[in-house]
Amino acid sequence: MKLRRWMLALAGLGVATAVAAQDLKSPSADQYVPRLGDIMSAAQARHQKLWLAGKAKNWELAAYELRQLKASLVEAALLYSGIPVGNVTTLEPSLRSVSDAIDAKDGRKFAKVLGELTEGCNACHRSMSRGFVVMKVPSDQQPFANQQFAPAARP
Fold first, then answer.
1. Cα 80 to Cα 36: distance, rounded to the nearest angstrom
2. Alpha-carbon separation of residue 146 from 10, 27, 64, 77, 81 (angstroms)
3. Structural domains of the chain sorted by starting position, each given as residue range(s) with its CATH number in brackets
4. Alpha helices, DSSP H, located in the chain
5. d(Cα 65, Cα 62) in Å, to the nearest integer?
6. 147 backbone dihedrals φ, ψ, rounded to 5°
7. What's the pLDDT tens digit per position in 80-124?
8. Taking residues 46-68, what's their average pLDDT?
9. 92-104 and 59-79 helices cross at what angle (nearest 10)?
């Protein structure tokens, strides 16, 4: 049943086959497994590159970075069982909206839906007791311009 949910999550995100997912889920003792922080750092870089490509209207690059971002999110969920499937699948509508904006070559829509995707990332962080990791839509091209480093306001 759990494998079926993973397969559905992967199918919804348009990533690899169930066989590849099973390989990621059960690494052998000699197989390298990246740390979750490394996967998320790659996702953060892809998030910024996605924004930069969309802002520059390089839609082919934006589509590529979106695929890479999706793959990072799926990899994190597959390799780290503490990340609920729901956290990955709830991002699907936002990921699809970003993809639609890229396909339409609509910069205004792209900016809006990237903000929604970014909030989805933050919701996931909060649900995992990592609310101190706050993503934002990048404001410039500086490295890590897509992360807020000041502490989040306490409710």
1. 7
2. 26, 32, 19, 22, 26
3. 2-25+35-148 (1.20.120)
4. 2-13, 18-25, 36-55, 59-79, 85-89, 92-104, 107-127
5. 5
6. -130, 140
7. 988 887 888 889 999 999 999 999 999 999 999 999 999 999 999
8. 95
9. 170
Give which of 61, 98, 92 is closest to 77, Cα–Cα.
92
| Structure tokens belonging to residue 124 | 């996931």
Q: What is the pTM of this model?
A: 0.76
* Per-residue pLDDT tens over the stretch 65-81: 999 999 999 999 999 98
pLDDT of residue 26: 57
Cα gap 50→61, rounded to integer Å: 8
How far apart CA 24 and CA 108 sit, in angstroms, is 37
Q: What is the pLDDT of residue 21?
A: 44
Mention every residue, 6+ apart, whose C-beta is less than 8 A from residue 148.
Answer: 134, 135, 136
